[in-house]
Amino acid sequence: MRVARFLAGLLLAMALPAMAEAQALQVTGDAVAQSLTGSAGDPGRGRAIIIDRQKGLCLLCHSGPFPEEPLQGNLAPSLEGAGSRWTEGQLRLRLMDNKRVNPESIMPAYHRIAGLNRVGSAWRDRPILNAAEIEDVLAFLMGLKAEKAP
Ligand code: HEC
Prior knowledge:
Helix 2 (43-51) packs across helix 5 (131-142) and helix 4 crosses helix 5 (131-142). By secondary structure, the protein is mostly helical. It is globular. It has helices at residues 2-15, 43-51, 82-85, 88-97, 131-142; strands at 22-24, 121-123. Bound molecules: heme C. Heme C is lined by residues 50, 56-58, 60-62, 75-77, 79, 82, 85, 91, 94-95, 98, 102, 105-108, 110, 137, 141.
């Protein structure tokens, strides 16, 4: 059984190198506490991914502090203040696969990983955003703190 699973994984790894990156990830409650890359992302790159209509496409549904972007979505809450509403781990899981916290959600799973809740290695799906891009977006979102009332 273990061997079969190992072989299946190996085949997958050979066929699709992009999926081969093994990761030990754990969902704790509604969060993934661990960085997907082992380090912090770059908020500038994260912002660029969010407004990129080919990449993140976040502004199809969301609005946020992007004054240069005339068309912003109203299908989802504004990203403004997201870094105050959620912990980093909660945002990481929501970005990776929001359906795990809300099965009805229309938000795409940007980085769904098979067997995410198993401790041990899992093979990555072909994600919309790779691990580094998820961490970049996350770094930007964590900087979006709600304004304190004067
Ligand atoms: C197709 C629409 C859609 C797209 C595209 C989308 N989202 Fe969402 N998102 C939603 C909806 C709807 C919710 C509200 C919660 C739910 O559905 O579970 C949400 C929730 C969120 C939340 C939590 C909101 C809060 O309450 O603070 C964050 C953060 C978020 N999305 C970030 C992103 C980012 C970043 C991207 C792009 C990488 C993105 N979303 C792309 C629809 C979308």
